[in-house]
Known about the structure:
The protein is an alpha/beta fold. The protein contains 11 helices and 10 strands.
Amino acid sequence: MQKVQETAEKIRTMEIRGAGRIAKAAAEAVRDYATGLDVASMEEFSARIREVSNFLISTRPTAVSLPNAVKLSSKYSSANVEEARQEIIENANLFIERADKALEKIGKIGSRRIQDGDVIMTHCNSHAALSIITKAFENGKDISVISTESRPRCQGLLTIRHLNDFGIPTTLIVDSAVRYYMKDVDKVIVGADAIAANGALVNKIGTSQLALAAHEARKSFMVAAETFKFSPSTIVGNPIEIEERAVDEIVDLAVISELSHVQVRNPAFDFTPAEYIDMIVTDIGIIPPAMAYTVIKEHLGWELGEI
Ligand code: RUB
């Protein structure tokens, strides 16, 4: 349990962050917990696995990759402890292997849509979006990237550093400069924390302003998302919860503590409606947002949602 708690703490404090990384870390935690689980009965095994799964899922509420990963990894059908343990180990390993392959496939598929000379705008720090950008560069395309700062946690700096390591030229801008620079942009590429059955995207706060500005300027808006980022429970209309984080991420509390009429809000994600999204690059190909329902139904399975 100590390792599970450590992983949960790293996810909560964002030492492990980004929907894909969170999912892989959770799958590993479930696998390692099941491996070392010493129980007297199958009932106890089931109860402990359920407890750990729920605990991991509760660490961050928005990234649907987290419950999807935990549910896929902790699946077993045997009523025998040793066999059930083995099933969990295999399912978790399969999930981790597929997650790595999915990132590669997204890079390969999405990079074909990048033209030589493209200026790409991105937001936050998405490994899926970066996979497309770096693959295009490795394939010899002469590209450059405008990256937002992504306040308050400034994940844009991680993006800039990653692209710099590849030798890709970048420009760092504040989040509010997105519309000002959109005229210089050919494509916007962002990642996903969740994709709803209606094709709406949930991603880092501010993503919807990139989408609006791209729509206004008639620039292409591309989302990079593994199929495990699609949300099964949205099929029956369950909303995706937007995480609201501590306000001291935004402002020094001492600065506002003596003010009595001020409230500070810190939502970590926002919604981008499907009509502002041109395509979603997934590990099974490029789809229009209207196909999100099909991805959930045919590639994730209904049993993942609380349906
Ligand atoms: C990260 C974020 C990323 C998505 C996709 O938010 O919004 O765009 O998680 O990332 P946070 P990836 O920093 O709050 O976790 O493509 O790496 O899964």
